Each structure stands twice: as C-alpha cells, then as structure tokens.
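Team,

Forwarding the record for the chain on the shared tracking sheet. I've put the sequence and predicted structure together so nobody has to dig through attachments.
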Amino acid sequence: MSIEKHGPGVEQAWRMLELFAGLDVHRFDLSWTDIDGHQQGFCPAQSVGTLRCWMPSLLRSAFQRRQNLIVRPKRAVATLVQLDDVGEGVLARVKSAAFLMLMTSGGNHQAWVAVQECGPDFARRLRKGSGADPSASGATRVAGSLNFKRKYAPDFPTVQILEATSPRTITRGALEALGLVAAPEPVPAVRAGRGDPRRRPKAWPSYERCLQNAAPTHSGNRRDVSRADFTFCLLAIDWGWSPGETCERLLEKSSKARENGEGYAWLTTQRAAAAVDRRRFGGSGPALGRSRLPDFEKGGSYPYLQLKPKIPVQAQAANTLSSTHG
C-alpha cells in the first residue's frame, strides 16, 4: 500500500457522494471501524458539503490508521435498499436496476437500488430474492477507501465504483419483472392476549445485551441487527409488555427500526408475539420449548456495548493526523 496509490480515491469518494445527493440525500452518518470491525468513531448527520470538504483528510487518516471509513445515507426521494454480497449469477440483473454498484474486494459486490413506494417487507423480499445479505445495515464503505480486514492483509483492497447511474429510481413492478424479488410470506396472526396475564412488566430487556449476543451476519464482521431486534421483542412480550409498547420501544432502541420505519418495527413485533403465543397456547416455536424465556436482567455475564462519543466531523478531521478517534 502507499499514499500515492490511495490518493486518487478522493475522486471516487466524491463521485459516490454525488450519486446519493442526486437522489436528494443531504446527510450521512459517518463512522470508523478498526480492522476487527470495532467502531472507533461516529459523527451523525454530516452534510454532503462537509463530507466533500473533509474527504481528502478523512481518507488519508483512515489509511494511516488502518481504519475503515463508512457512511450511512439518510433519507432520499425513494427508499434506498442495500444489496450486499450479491452473487455473480444475479449481477447482470441487479446492474440494470441499481444506481450504484461497488466492488468491496475481489469477487465481492454491493449494489444500491432506489425503489419507489417501497415498504420494509418489500425491501426484505428484494434482499432475499437477489440472494443478498438479509442483514445489510444500510451503511457502506466509502468508495476510494481501503477495506481493512485481517483476511486481506497485507494487500488490502480498495473499494471501487463499478457502475454508476444517477439519478435512477425503479418501481417495484420492474424489480419483480427482473426476478429479483422473493414471494411474500404470510404473517402469522397474533392472538388477542398481548402480554403475560400473570404479571405486570417491571423492566425492559436490555437491547444492548440482545445486540451483543446476536449471531454474526454471514460475512462475520458485525452482529445481525435483525436477530437482535426480534430477540428484544420476544423477551419484552414474554415479560409482559404489549406488542404496541414493544414496537414503540424498539423504535427508540434500534437504529435499523428507526431507519426502516414503523412497518419494520411492527412486523418484527408481530412475529415475536406470534412466537410467544405458539409457546403459550400449544405448538412451541423453534428452539423455544415451553419454559419461560431467561430473565437476563437478573443475572448473566453479557457485556454492554461501549459506543464512542459523538464528535463533530470538523474537529475529527482537524485531528486526523495527531489524535485517535473518539
């Protein structure tokens, strides 16, 4: 690796920002992770102009510290669906629908699709039908930056733009015609009995512990947020909270629920409630049995997540060559 090799990445990073800006994305959450995927810094809601101004320093600092530079786009004229780890077999079909395609490492591709009138369930079906990572978080490595993972050392690959078409949005029907969307799945009906009638809830489960103990995604570099969300809802309803209360709490705690909206939160809550009902009223859910779920608040050794403090991107960039993030 060399600074000279990495320098031209600034143009790719600017191009990536422009593509999202063409879809009326005005702000991004900015974060850094180390080679093991642990978060090292976080700056929320940075404007396109601010990121463009500081991008050369941000890329240079990330290169020198061997840190991954990651952005999460905030809102757009259409729903932005991230298709991560797209296989070679569907690349051509995805290419005709995506406004941005990235190569994050040799043989690994990521596509971004802007879908008109897209709900959270349709986004899930699109990921499933395209064979993409179902737990994609909506955050992406910055084009032109290096992908720091131990398995790539010492020749860390550069994240590259393969295809770019802006502004491009696509309809649900067009995606279905391309064969990229899985069939809808029926949602189990939830019984009228909401919380556990035997007791009043006294406390909420720890969302942080649910996230800490969630299984990793199939890429192995982060926890599966969807599973953490489901586990949190499952515990909350089993402890006596109603699905409505649980849905509201999930929207407070889960970044994925806030990004995907109430539809995602309510669907997750419904499925958790149905699983609790199956256990209580006959026909246990998978791996749950009929005993009460563990009360993690009364013990256990699960560590809480320690997030880095939020710092303004201006201060962060000013200190990129002399101090550590967060």
